[in-house]
């Protein structure tokens, strides 16, 4: 999975940093999303997916993501 962001869409709510603090942070200047790990290990994929789903501005783009694990 690769993570991209649409910085111009980000409204600095912070859901991403709260849900996946090992993958996302917020800029000190304006609070917008900062990607800490653009190619996170597999055990962080679910957190990244949840953060992307809960972003109210759809500012997080996930590329090459695997489907969620069932079970």
TrEMBL record:
Ferredoxins are iron-sulfur proteins that transfer electrons in a wide variety of metabolic reactions. PANTHER family: FERREDOXIN. It comes from the Bacteria. It comes from Streptomonospora algeriensis. InterPro entries: 3Fe4S_ferredoxin, Fe-S_cluster_ET. This is Ferredoxin. Keywords: 3Fe-4S, Electron transport, Iron, Iron-sulfur, Metal-binding, Transport. Its cofactor is [3Fe-4S] cluster. Gene3D superfamilies: 3.30.70.20.
């Amino acid at each position: 999975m690769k993570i991209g962001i649409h910085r111009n869409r980000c409204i600095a709510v912070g859901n991403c940093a709260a849900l996946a603090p090992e993958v996302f942070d917020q800029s000190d200047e304006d609070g917008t999303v900062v990607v800490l790990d653009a190619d996170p290990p597999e055990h962080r994929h679910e957190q990244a997916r949840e953060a992307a789903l809960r972003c109210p501005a759809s500012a997080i783009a996930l590329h090459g993501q695997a489907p969620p694990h069932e079970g």
